[in-house]
Amino acid sequence: MAQSSAQTVEEYLAELSPDRRKALNIVRQVILNNLPEGYKETMQFGMISYVIPLERYPVTYNKQALGYAALASQKNYMAIYLMNVYGDPATEQWFTEQYKATGMKLDMGRSCVRFKKLDDIPLDLIGQTIALTPVDKFIKRYETARGRRG
């Protein structure tokens, strides 16, 4: 599935094959267990997304809720998108070092960590990474990157 038209997380998961549904449900639970207060799970851009709701922060460049993380099932892999890693060089360095220390192979784009099966990603590190950035800190980082002062 390249992009889903599902309106809810439950609809999205129901579209997946059983093995992908199981894997993404496990990663989803890790995210939910570690998600700082103020982020909300929703569907955005055809993916399960974790965002700062527009009610909390409406000043985004695309008028969409500010995305923090996302989960997706792509054609050849599954992916977790970690915008707090992408948006901060120090966090990216920490993440890549921690990932390498697990002995697992990191297959990463700019914010996207790709995996074919659940055993390909370190769930503890994913949880630590999700827990790393409170909403206010993420907003401040976003505003700095966009040239705004908060």
Secondary-structure-derived class: alpha+beta
CATH topology: Aspartate Aminotransferase, domain 1
The level of helicity is 40-55%
| Average pLDDT figure | 93
Kindly provide the name of the CATH class. Answer: Alpha Beta
Return the domain count.
Answer: 1
Gyration radius, to the nearest Å? 15 Å
Q: How do the strands of the widest beta sheet line up side by side?
A: 1-2-3-4-5
Question: Which regions are unreliable across 5 or more consecutive residues at pLDDT < 50?
Answer: none
CATH architecture: Alpha-Beta Complex
Mass-distribution shape: globular
Strand content: 15-25%
Q: What's the total count of β strands?
A: 5
What is the distance, rounded to the nearest whole angstrom, between the alpha carbons of the first and last residues? 38 Å
Largest sheet entry: 5 strands, antiparallel
Number of helical segments with 4 or more residues:
6
SSE order in H/E notation?
Answer: HHEEEEHHEHH
What does this structure look like?
The structure is a single chain. This protein has 150 residues and is of the alpha+beta class. The mean pLDDT is 93. The chain has a single domain (9-145), classed as Aspartate Aminotransferase, domain 1 (Alpha-Beta Complex). The chain is built from six helices and five strands; from the N terminus they run ααββββααβαα. The chain is globular and about 40 Å long.
